[in-house]
Amino acid sequence: MRHLPYFCRGEVVKGYGRGSKELGIPTANFSEQVVESFPSDIPTGIYYGWACVGNGDVHKMVLSIGWNPFYKNIKKSVETHIIHTFKEDFYGEILSIVITGYIRPEKNFDSLDALILAIQEDIEEAKRQLDLPEHLKLKEDNFFHLPEGKIVNNH
Ligand SMILES: Cc1cc2nc3c(=O)[nH]c(=O)nc-3n(C[C@H](O)[C@H](O)[C@H](O)COP(=O)(O)O)c2cc1C
Ligand SMILES: Nc1ncnc2c1ncn2[C@@H]1O[C@H](COP(=O)(O)OP(=O)(O)O)[C@@H](O)[C@H]1O
Ligand SMILES: [Mg+2]
């Protein structure tokens, strides 16, 4: 897909506080500035890739770009669920991501359970895809080892 791999770095802000954390699927939401910096023609939907908080380790992630049709959000969001258990929240920290692949478009669901099940399937798909050499190699990209602030989106 055009635009991929897509490198991006930005601050983690509060989302709609829908308690995705209680559902077991917290998502680190990017600031509005970062959301607006995304290419306008990058399709909304569910993606996977690699993520790192501050200078921490690089982990697998799934990402949602769009308006969350289940919730009918007014504002577009870019949210990353990192496939790792963190001891604490990291609001205000710098999240670095590389998006390497696309899974599916955003969908509406009949129930919250159906949404959760779909996200769990996305996570399993991401785990499998990211073990393939083509995606695995981006885990080691220099982007994750450069000092913060030196990088603007996709450069
Ligand atoms: C992998 C993944 C897939 C998602 N798929 C959908 C989807 O198909 N439809 C939808 O409405 N929301 C989808 N979401 C977004 C959730 O609705 C969202 O993370 C939740 O509303 C929490 O939002 P908040 O961070 O603003 O509190 C997805 C999120 C993730 C991480
Ligand atoms: N594995 C994880 N992936 C993403 N965020 C996480 C993770 N573990 C803890 N968090 C924290 O949870 C927050 C997101 O929780 P969430 O319920 O989506 O709230 P919000 O609506 O504010 O985005 C993140 O900003 C981050 O500080
Ligand atoms: Mg969130």
TrEMBL record:
Output one GO BP term: apoptotic process
Q: Where does the record place the Riboflavin kinase domain?
A: 1-131
Q: Which cofactor does it need?
A: Zn(2+)
List the Gene Ontology MF annotations in alphabetical order.
ATP binding; metal ion binding; riboflavin kinase activity
Pfam entry (one) = Flavokinase
Sorted keywords for this record are: ATP-binding, Flavoprotein, FMN, Kinase, Metal-binding, Nucleotide-binding, Transferase, Zinc
Q: Which E.C. number(s) belong to this protein?
A: 2.7.1.26
The catalytic activity, as recorded, is: riboflavin + ATP = FMN + ADP + H(+)
What is the top-level taxon of the source organism? Eukaryota
Q: Please name the top-level EC class of this enzyme.
A: transferase
Role according to the record: Catalyzes the phosphorylation of riboflavin (vitamin B2) to form flavin-mononucleotide (FMN), hence rate-limiting enzyme in the synthesis of FAD. Essential for TNF-induced reactive oxygen species (ROS) production. Through its interaction with both TNFRSF1A and CYBA, physically and functionally couples TNFRSF1A to NADPH oxidase. TNF-activation of RFK may enhance the incorporation of FAD in NADPH oxidase, a critical step for the assembly and activation of NADPH oxidase.
Q: What is this protein called?
A: Riboflavin kinase
Native organism: Taeniopygia guttata
